[in-house]
Predict the structure.
Amino acid sequence: VTFAGQPEHSVITTCAYCGVGCSFKAEMKGSQVVRMTPYKNGQANEGHACVKGRFAWGYATHKDRITKPMIRAKITDPWREVTWEEAIAYAASEFRRIQAQHGRDSVGGITSSRCTNEETYLVQKLVRAAFGNNNVDTCARVCHSPTGYGLKTTIGESAGTQTFASVEHADVIMVIGANPTDGHPVFGSRLKRRLREGAKLIVVDPRRIDLVDGPHVKADYHLQLRPGANVALVNALAHTIVTEGLLAETFIAERCEPLAFAQWRAFIAQQENSPEATEQITGVPAALVREAARLYATGGNAAIYYGLGVTEHAQGSTMVMGIANLAMATGNIGREGVGVNPLRGQNNVQGSCDMGSFPHELPGYRHIGGDEVRHQFEAAWGVTLQPEPGLRIPNMFDAALDGSFKGLYCQGEDIVQSDPDTQHVAAALASMECIVVQDIFLNETAKYAHVFLPGSSFLEKDGTFTNAERRISRVRRVMPPLAGYADWEVTLMLSRALGYEMDYANPSQIMDEIARLTPTFHGVSYGLIDRLGSVQWPCNEQAPEGTPTMHVDEFVRGKGRFVITQFVASREKVTRRYPLLLTTGRILSQYNVGAQTRRTENSRWHEEDRLEIHHHDAEERGIKTGDWVGIESRAGQTVLRALVSERMQPGVVYTTFHFPESGANVITTDSSDWATNCPEYKVTAVQVQPVQQP
Ligand code: SF4
């Protein structure tokens, strides 16, 4: 997949993997990439890169790429290659037939955080303007939707507060439910550099991740809690701060709503929230919790970085608000070296959320029910929009099984492998009448599709990605789309065939429209990004060159709002039948469902998903490293090989979900966040037993 030879020219573009958003030079010979080298002026990465971005780009020209559109009447029929015109016409006629038979709301669309801002904007516009409903959602539903809810509620904006560079001013770093050295390696290195300079580290994680005692780093505190106990722990940290007189009283008085604070203070001071009272729930010694809380509150600039170990819980949104409460309570927000920083898994999670890919929000996180903003989009798009929110992804599955949701346009997202409770998802998809999958490979979801529209990789299109620090960077086309069209052009064709014309000559014009309609993007243009290298939103009249640190003098919502965070135990409890708790995560060389990295040399380093298990639990079951084990939950069962690991605590097992054969999401359940339906991937009660090799 690589071209042997010396490069003739290079193009600056952005990595298509994680939310760090590293800049790369694609070094080219003709239209072939010779190598990817980290761009030394890249503002997110400063010349650094990891093994994914640097070496795992060959999937773009992998032999598995599908370059011809295909259709079939039934999912049991063989695929038939057709022209673009026939595929698009067939998809449009099927969507219109379904809507005529089953109603306007019987179809919808799913966008992807792997796609560009411009592409996700177009998909939500197609759903709202051409389908005429709000049944649009993004794969951020299953990762950071609680971040959107929790941060908007407390501090007023659904985004991280800082730049990555801000960590260089942190004296205390608290990492909660994130594994930056594997999941966000370039930021992980930056964080470790700050630790070597003397910053203190608190790790909150059920698993002993590398940051706890890996190469060149040792955490000052590892709060190794039980899966599902996040909110109890954050309350115990806050209880210590409140009852030991460690509150930032002046900051709170000046910057936060007094009544909400008083109510929160009274709640959190209750004995039931103390480290001692919650020790049985969290499994973390009370003395350790108290010491960590004191360090966070008094150790100087304290920054929190968190990941999916926070959001992917039944109380994901509650935990995000608990983290914001901690930062406000200690005055650790609104300047360098502090803040609340969600680490985004995919390259464009932030962007896909910004672009209005949620069923209740138009671009810029504005509710579809707001007359003024809806009328603004109606005038710009020349259509009437529905004021009621549409279906979220899990609601689409439920509606499909009820018989009221029949058609789906799914761009760049493998919902069968990535969403929880695979059997439920598969049954829902199998019950639908027209599924259009737009992807670069025939993924697991394509098994249920009736139309396959070949997608384009990040090397084949222009656009922008927005990383975890709100930084909008250019994606630049380095070679022509293998299938003839970039994804944004395919969405235009589908919309036109549906009778709603969208007219853009290039993605720059799409961004211009986004900027016109979105106050936080008013100043954004390709010209500005090219001039500055990248730009962090909000970028508008008040901040013409962007905003590195948010909430400086006041919160985006005005006063910060403390929210009461009552702990509620997860529905997933250990029982005699399911005595262990399973949690999931990622490893360095692979990326999410592995569609890209599995088709690169990176797979040599990690060829399968394994079940990590503590030696006590392994010995009790007669399991050794390398043995095959069956894992069963109330949702389903699968088989993996075991890895006996001291990273685990007794009673907790762990796996990754990079390989479809492992079926990790066959066992995760339909339990989800109360506010956003983000699945509870991180807590599943299971049994593990040795089995014969399958
Ligand atoms: Fe790509 Fe993330 Fe690695 Fe940077 S850290 S090269 S963005 S995968």
Residues 84-102 form the longest helix (19 residues). The pocket of iron/sulfur cluster is lined by residues 15, 17-18, 20-22, 45, 49-50, 52-53, 184-186 (CB under 6 Å).
